[in-house]
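User: I'm preparing a small set of examples for a lab meeting where we compare how different chains pack in three dimensions. I only have the primary sequence for this one, and I'd like the structure in token form so I can line it up with the others. Please keep the answer compact; I'll paste it straight into my notes.
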Amino acid sequence: MRRLPRKGMMEARDVQEKKGGAMPRIGPTELIIILVIILVIFGAGKLPEIGGAIGKGIRSFRRSVSSDEDEDKAKDEKTGQKTGETKT
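Assistant: Understood. Below is the structure token output for the 88-residue chain.
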């Protein structure tokens, strides 16, 4: 059974929302507004170029992260350790 807060007390959720600690929720309306602003700023002709550049950047980032993990695994195999273990 849930207890009611005393008068003058706030729940943790309410305190977080007042302090700005809660993440803002982005709904479909906000996404449409953002897309319209991007369309107005860059124009319809530039959107495919911008999308391609963003996609290339994301792919490059993923490759660098996965290559770092592969290098870590190779080093661990050389030293005989499993990933995440420390040598004592």
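A couple of notes for your slides: Residues 41 and 60 are 26 Å apart (CA to CA). The chain has a mean pLDDT of 79.

User: Perfect, thanks.
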